Amino acid sequence: MAIHNYDVVVIGTGPAGESAAINAAKHGKRVAVVEKQPILGGNCTHWGTIPSKALRHQVKQIMQFNTNRMFRDIGEPRWFSFPRVMERSRITIDQQVEMRTKFYARNRIDLFSGVARFKDEHTLLVRDRQEALEELVAQKIIIATGSRPYRPADINFRHPRIYDSDSVLSLSHTPRTLIIFGAGVIGCEYASIFSGLGVKVDLINSRDRLLSFLDDEISDALSYHLRKHGVLIRHNEEYERVEGDESGVVVYLKSGKKLRADAFLWANGRTGNTDELGLENIGLEANGRGQLQVDDHYRTAIPHIYAAGDVIGWPSLASAAYDQGLNACDELLERDYRFVNEVPTGIYTIPEISSFGRTERELTEAKVPYEVAQAFFKDTARAQITGDTVGMLKILFHQDTLEIYGIHCFGDQASEIVHIGQAIMQQKGEANTLKYFVNTTFNYPTMAEAYRVAAQNGLNRVF
Questions:
Q1: Can you state the percent helix, strand and coil of the chain, rounding each to 5?
Q2: What DSSP assignment string belongs to 294-326?
């Protein structure tokens, strides 16, 4: 068995693992990464962020074609199957893998394909698909193994019509009807995608409203537009059992209802990928969701072993994972670092949602005297040109000081638009003010111009 010595070994090549490994290599460390899958990129590239967002983009284009009157001059509305749309999305995945493979080669990072398991606190055993073993000895180790869909034991995921958010990407047909259990971010995104393809969707939510962490007005707008596209939302429901047969799936709810559809998608929770790491050999223990606890330096209970990304839980976003991996590496390199605790929300429904900061509910409960500034996309020239007139930008600010507390956006390019407000909110003292948006010239016509319109609307409310 070959033995290799490194300064840093990173387990996982998703956003957290990639940023940590490249950061260490650029600062002169000898680095190795271990990836369980035969190709790089982690869950983000192959099952999560990239495929679902690429899929969403293709569906959005189909919806635009089928609803744009100009295209009726060249043909009738078209129907596309799920496998065909997914095939087009795989081009993006292949591009991502090729690009990321070059990153590792350029930075002379050694790649090991296989499952990593702790032998002791400084040693990993890597077993490849041919059962060959290699031993990696490292001064520092970063666990960035990501997460996978949580699968309850009483649901038969081997049934050909029962899927989770990973296996649904290999769906070989287009169901006419679909039941999605779980109305979190993933469930809402897939409800948008499938309804955009003409599938009748039942979205089952165990809570009393969609995405309750959002501003109430934005959550209500999402509910309205999902329903507008044919999604039937069922709140405050729990499943009793799920039974699949040759022609479909029946879901029995604890409320006494029973639903039938061609297919069933489980989208309720995720589990950290820690079960194969051999944590018992080093005295580390994951929580009930398979996640590792870290301090604000991204250190586990063993100081030279770090963890970042979905494997540590909140916020479970690719954007945050990248920054967590980068800063975990900065800490072990004894460089300046930050603990990632403020990130914008990006939800790629159709239309998409993004927010940063506090909601109206939070400010009201804290008795903060805030005011609302808003702009509706239907009133902006750029949205009228593109036809993406659904949505709004909302800015929450202090009535007296004009300090900005929250940015909430619903509509086309929301995940891009939010960053302008985020940048101003991050400024210190009086630099964070609503006045910035009326004292700054924005390109016209743009979606970003909504900030100027909203700011003027808000200032009109102040007396």
A1: 35, 25, 40
A2: --TTSB-SSTTEEE-GGGG-TT--HHHHHHHHH
pLDDT given for residue 420 in this prediction: 97
Structure tokens at 441: 């010239």
pLDDT at 194 over 90: yes
Q: What is the mean pLDDT of residues 228-248?
A: 97
CA distance 375 to 420: 15
**Residues making up the binding site:** 35-44
Binding residues for FAD are 35-44
Q: What are phi and psi of 250, to 5 degrees?
A: -115, 130
Apex 105 CA angle, 104 and 111, nearest 5: 60
| Side chain identity at residue 363, one-letter code | L
pTM confidence score: 0.94
Q: How many CA atoms lie within 13 A of 100 on its CB side?
A: 25
Q: Which of 203, 237, 238, 236 is nearest to 222 (CA)?
A: 203
Contact 142, 325 (CB under 8 A): yes
Distance of CA 167 to the CA centre of its chain: 17
On whether the CB atoms of residues 437 and 451 are closer than 8 A, the answer is yes
pLDDT digit string (tens) for 14-46? Answer: 999 999 999 999 999 999 999 999 999 999 999
pLDDT of 295 > 90? The answer is yes
354 neighbors 346 (Cβ within 8 angstroms)? yes
Q: Give the confidence band of 339 by pLDDT, cuts at 50, 70, 90.
A: very high
- By C-alpha distance, which of 18, 270, 198, 20 is closest to 8? 20
